[in-house]
């Protein structure tokens, strides 16, 4: 772990010194939080949400982002622990993804049209982008 920390700290130092931008892909949300300014959350190769680190960790909007963030350990005992969201079902085969929203088979908030309609990926708040019918349903939401 100390080698990983040293490499990440070196990357941050180089980023600040030279104004670098990284495309950093990882599953370790602690590392992602440390290294990132903006974060994109992907599921089955599809972008589900893009937000600043601060916004995403404070209030994830997409149901998949909410499930991911509920699993992040809190760094201080005084921080309020969110209820853990356990996703049901198996991850679909990426080479044969489900129709509609690719997350609908595991989404606790899925609606009937999620099975058919692919949600648009668009800005739902300033600099917050989400692909979810909960936020961009043209049927009245």
From TrEMBL:
GO terms for biological process: peptide transport. Keywords: ATP-binding, Nucleotide-binding, Transport. Pfam families: oligo_HPY. One of its GO terms (molecular function) is ATP binding. InterPro entries: ABC_transp_ATP-bind (IPR050319), Oligopep_ABC_C (IPR013563), P-loop_NTPase (IPR027417). Residues 48-114 form the Oligopeptide/dipeptide ABC transporter C-terminal domain. Transmembrane segments: none annotated. NCBIfam families: oligo_HPY. Belongs to the ABC transporter superfamily. This is Oligopeptide transport ATP-binding protein OppF. It comes from Halalkalibacter akibai (strain ATCC 43226 / DSM 21942 / CIP 109018 / JCM 9157 / 1139) (Bacillus akibai).
């Amino acid at each position: 772990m100390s080698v990983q920390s040293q490499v990440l700290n070196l990357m941050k130092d180089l980023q600040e010194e030279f104004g670098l931008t990284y495309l950093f892909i990882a599953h370790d949300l602690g590392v992602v939080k440390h290294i990132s300014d903006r974060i994109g959350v992907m599921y089955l190769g599809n972008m589900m949400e893009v937000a600043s680190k601060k916004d995403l960790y404070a209030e994830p909007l997409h149901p998949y982002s909410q499930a991911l963030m509920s699993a992040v350990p809190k760094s201080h005992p005084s921080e309020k622990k969110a209820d853990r969201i356990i996703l049901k079902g198996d991850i679909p085969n990426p080479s044969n993804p489900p129709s509609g929203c690719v997350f609908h088979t595991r989404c606790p908030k899925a609606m009937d049209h999620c099975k058919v309609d692919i949600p648009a990926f668009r800005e739902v708040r300033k600099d917050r982008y989400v692909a979810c019918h909960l936020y961009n349903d043209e049927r009245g939401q």
